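Before going further, learn to read the protein records used in this course. Taken together, the tokens spell out the fold as the letters spell out the chain. A record is reproduced here so that you can trace the correspondence yourselves:

***
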Amino acid sequence: MPMQWSPALCRKEKCVKKPISKFTIHGMWASNKTDPQPMVCMKNVTKVRDLYMGMISKPTQTELHTSWPNFQGPDDFFFWQKQWYKHGTCSYSTFNQTQFFDVANDIWKGLQLFDILRAASISPSISRYQQRADFERAIRNHVGVPNLMIELDCPSPSNELLEIRMCRNHAGNAYIDCHHNGTCGLTSFKWKP
């Protein structure tokens, strides 16, 4: 599950909302060994393809505005619809729309990455490079899975942390190794405020 750092996102792309100092959900992406990131799996099944807000409880919708905001557009629903269509439809056999958003939101609530890193004395810096091993240790200690492969995404050429991707099993209830460790440097990268 990719968690995005909006200050980096808004330096990379145009944002209409002010970035916040918290990791937020980018999506919940299905994956498997033969197709590491399947997309748009049920484009011909309107009932599955289209997102119906009535399927998501009002309390969850309220929480999603905080956990899964759309920084690049004024409408959070548009972002949720896009992520459901592109990725959620690929997990429909496991999660219907209600479950998809509930599970993603519950994972986010249990994985407050900014707070986890801050508790390990890791914080964004304009000038200091971050040590990948420190990030991995803090997150692994929190989730209780030693040697878990975590994907850190730093688009080039900036080598600035944009996303932390945590992989879960098919049922979404346990952490598993991601397919690769991402695009951040093997030893260090930038994480700017």
Summary: The chain is about 35% helix and 10% strand. The mean pLDDT is 90. Strands lie at 2-5, 23-25, 129-131, 151-153, 163-165, 167-168, 175-176, 188-190. Residues 97-110 form the longest helix (14 residues).
